[in-house]
Amino acid sequence: MSGFALRDDVHTQHHTETSRSPVQRTKDWLMPTSVTGWTMAVAVASLITQIGIIVTGGAVRLTESGLGCPTWPKCTPESLTNTPEMGIHGYIEFGNRTLTFVLTAVAVLMLLAIWRLRATYRAIFWLSIILLCGIPGQAVIGGMTVLTELNPWVVSLHFLLSSFLVCLAALLVNRVGLERRIGGGEVEQVPSLVDGETTATTRGLARAAFVLGWITLILGTVVTGSGPHGGDAEAPRHDFDPAVVTRWHVIPVYLLIAVVIVLLVLVHRLASSQRQRISVWAMVAVIVLQASVGYYQHFNGLPIVAVLGHMLGTGLLAWLMTNMMDRQCSSYSWHDTVVDPRSPRFTANVDPATLVADAQAEGASPGPAR
Ligand code: HEM
Q1: Name one GO cellular component term (predicted).
Q2: Which partner from 18, 76, 194, 299 sits 20 to 30 angstroms from 291, CA to CA?
């Protein structure tokens, strides 16, 4: 289906609003022909659930429930679910497995929400597909963690894939948010995710912060693998000295702080947008929070509530570092139908080529790379 046809759909939708059956109305609500509040709500739900599963996975590890279900995909060789005799650990581990269905439901709703727009909102569509595919991927790695009796490298991989999915969900929310903001409105200039001034330096710093964030996440999992919270009293541990690997984990944090502070100064000197400035301030806030909890847990014998807080912080950091980079470096600028002269959103006698030229002059790189 072409983007042109889609916009015609939207146009007719208003006229047929009252004559549609309840089934048709539900279908149009779940599978809209424009980016709606529902699309945005499901995108935000994707992000929240992806961050949430990091925390609930952490709760499994910290309550030593990692082998609460001793096998996979069944909970025990005989039973799909946990049994009362397995105690609290069985409930916690099986409860976490059950959350996979919540994640799947949200991912399917997201795919449905963009399905009728898939031909033109390609970036959003593909992000939704990858998020959906990530769930079976995570289920399989989750199964491997159980079958390897909580090998710390496999546990790390499980956590890092979740962080990666958080990054993708953050991109999804930004793109849906932009389309939602411009949807239905008049187009005066090409709306772009990068909606304020950037320079090669600010873009480089945002990318550096993203890379440093990832190095911190990876080294953090090595600290965890060397520490006492393996998910089960018998779980294998790395041979590294926890004090030494903690020092390695903190080095990229210091570099990250330096990079983000320089970026903060620069975005206030440039004609940055409010969204760009907020994205950097949000990073400052999450790093301060995360580093404080990190030091607290380190000097206080790793209390599980603090470690859980540190895990929530990692999910938030994965989101916010992606958001900050997206708002400096993204090439996502507008939707095809914006330059469709038959679109209800296209109001003026503006040659599409002019819109493209304007976008390029403003530093946004338009085109298929979206
Ligand atoms: C931006 C800042 C930080 C980020 C993004 C971060 C991220 C992480 C991650 C991803 C983990 C592994 C979680 C897991 O595998 O379940 C971790 C563990 C850990 N981090 Fe950090 N961290 C940060 C700052 C700090 C700081 C400043 C300290 C201070 C010493 C610290 C101390 C620790 C410790 C001790 C662990 C192991 C916890 C355990 O045994 O379960 N972190 N961190």
Answers
A1: membrane
A2: 194
Q: Is the CB of 260 under 6 A from ligand 1?
A: no
Answer yes or no: is the C-beta of 227 below 6 A from any ligand 1 atom.
Answer: yes
Contacts of 60 (CB under 8 A, 6+ apart): 66, 68, 92, 93, 96, 231
8 token code pair: 């015609």
In the block, tokens 């903690």 appear at 246
Indicate the pTM of the whole model: 0.85
201 phi-psi bin (left φ>0, alpha ψ -120 to 50, beta other): alpha
Do residues 191 and 366 lie in contact, with contact meaning Cβ atoms separated by under 8 Å? no
- Among protein residues, the one whose CA lies closest to atom 30 of ligand 1: 295
Q: Are 58 and 308 in contact (CB under 8 A)?
A: yes
